Predict the structure.
Amino acid sequence: APANTITPPDSIKVTQDSIKGDITTTIKYSARDSIVFHVNERVVNMYGEANIDYGDMSLQAATTAINYETNILSAKGAVDTTGKAVGTPVFKQGSEMYTANQMNYNFKTKKGKISGVVTRQGEGFLHAETVKRTADEAFYGANAHYTTCDLPHPHFYINASKIKALPGKKIFSGPF
């Protein structure tokens, strides 16, 4: 048989439809150290200054992953040899920006879950232990601090067990 009709046993035939799935635009990704594509699981892991761009959304962190099966983008930071946090995840979408310890974002539903988040809201900063972001860009935070202090560990803040923010509009809280 001619050589062009033989398929080696370790080859994988991939059609455009099998990769596209729920992706509506091109996902661009890069990493300084390495990129590992797990074909069977449909997961791409990126290590070292990893970056994902998807439409108007970008995500940078020490480690990121794209799961094409579940439509989840995830990111987490790392610790260097001196114990200092490096590669803290930074999520940007439009004019919004969040930094966090760890985050997951579903690019199909546009919902996300973020741990240890800090974001600018108006003239202040919102710090929260856990935040869930909805498709309409509202987010709900647990154990939140709202402050005008721009330090990572603010000297003063309003403490609320629950908070809801509509970016650029309003912030609601439970007792504070």
Observations:
- The CA atoms of residues 12 and 39 lie 9 Å apart.
- Residues 1-21 have pLDDT under 50 and may be disordered.
